[in-house]
Predict the 3D structure of the following.
Amino acid sequence: MEHGKTEENIDRLADDLPEGKLADLAEVFKIFGDSTRIKILCDLFREEKNVTEICSDLEMNQSAISHQLKLLKTAKLVNSRRSGKQMIYSLADEHVKTIIAMGMEHIVE
């Protein structure tokens, strides 16, 4: 979608969104307000991983990672699937990658 077109759509949506949807949007942004959750999302940016791999990459314990993954999954930012005894996690969709990329672009300007 064209940048100007995106801004036009957001302007229109902001006028038409019910309060409940604005609250939902605020909740999504709250999820991005924790550096551990951002690290997990960035770790999943290139490929799906199990909890053990994420713990190793982030040098954190499984309890902390599992708690954050549950929040990310509830927010529909992360998907999971079972592979044998393991849960494999991945980013829910390309929107998550776009949000992270746009955030990074914003902070390096």
Notes: The radius of gyration is 16 Å. DSSP finds six helices and three strands in the chain.
